[in-house]
Amino acid sequence: GFAGELRESIERINALKMDAAEKSKAFQAGDPSISLNDLMIDTQKASVATQFGIQMRNRLITAYKEIMRMQV
Question: Rounded to two decimals, what is the model's pTM?
């Protein structure tokens, strides 16, 4: 259902953020298998996903407030 999809979306966003953080640490430690390009792309993916999640949260809150204002 909706709650399950929402939970999975949050988990995917978290996974992207964790992956970017791990690659950042590896790059800073001098790991030759991590290129700056890959790091920047993963960081941007995590940033875009986070911003999308924030916007979805804001829209859900707005929709909830609208429903609460409806006359029954």
Answer: 0.81
